[in-house]
Amino acid sequence: MGESKKHNSLVIAIEKWIEKNKGGGDNTCLLTDSGLSSSKSRPKPINGHVPDIYAENLTKERWIIIGEAKTARDLESKRSEKQIKEFLKYCASYPGTLFILSVPWDTTIYARSLLKIFKKELGFPDLTTLVINELGFSGE
After folding, report:
1. Angle between the 108-122 and 78-93 helix axes, to the nearest 10 degrees?
2. Does an H or E element contain 127, and which?
3. Which H or E element spans position 30?
4. Alpha carbon distance 47, 29 (integer Å)
5. pTM of this prediction?
6. Is the pLDDT of residue 71 over 90?
């Protein structure tokens, strides 16, 4: 099933955030699962779910980013809740891992609230997460 243009724009927002804030280069591996990527460059499943973005830097300042894009309708689904929670569990297992949720600008506050609730339910209230939107704005 093809990804929507909206979803793809949200995935691209994550890629741009990573490029701007983390850089790129030979030591960074960026895998994308979107309508724009080839099957060879897709992330592996994490706890049974494939994230839209998996980025890893292999230098001394090693970091991992798990990125997920959700349209407004998809953000409210039980499937998305389960998926996001599994990604948060993964991030909690690897210190320094960042979870980025990319959503339409008009759902940013709702997405932040969801992440706060999920982190509390899972027992990871201090886990580092970030919500961004297709306009490039971000916030915790």
Report:
1. 60
2. none
3. strand 28-32
4. 20
5. 0.90
6. yes
